[in-house]
């Protein structure tokens, strides 16, 4: 096996979550920071909490409200011009 080919493996890498929870796992990085973990994820907690970054939900709702307010324009039927209006080549 070649030397210095594989990255260094940390058996007790510390993971810290945005909610304040911390635990250890095996990883090639010594410190890992995550936004969601098993302690705060809605699937594991049974509580639904809305995770919104930079108002994405509000922007989406505003676009939907604006689209609902816009009245669709009726299309006018196309009228064919009579053949006498065309220029005859000659």
Compile the SSE list and pairings.
Blueprint: E1 10-17, E2 22-27, E3 31-34, H1 42-45, H2 56-69
Parallel strand pairs: 1-3
Antiparallel strand pairs: 1-2
Strand numbers in spatial order across the main sheet: 2-1-3
Give the low-pLDDT segments: none
Strand element count: 3
Shape estimate: elongated
- Helix and strand string, N-terminal first? EEEHH
**Fraction of residues in H or I helices:** 10-25%
DSSP helical segment count: 2
CATH topology of the domain at 10-70: Rhinovirus 14, subunit 4
Derived structural class: alpha+beta
The CATH class assignment of the domain at 10-70 is Few Secondary Structures
User: How big is the Rg?
Assistant: 31 Å
Question: What integer is the average pLDDT?
Answer: 81
């Amino acid at each position: 096996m070649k030397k210095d080919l594989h990255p260094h493996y940390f058996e007790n890498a510390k993971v810290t979550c945005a909610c304040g929870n911390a635990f250890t796992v095996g990883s090639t990085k010594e410190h890992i920071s995550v936004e969601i973990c098993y302690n705060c994820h809605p699937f594991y907690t049974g509580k639904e909490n809305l995770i919104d970054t930079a108002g994405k939900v509000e922007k989406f709702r505003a676009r939907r409200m604006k689209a609902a307010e816009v009245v669709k324009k009726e299309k006018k039927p196309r009228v064919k011009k009579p053949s006498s209006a065309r220029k005859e080549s000659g």
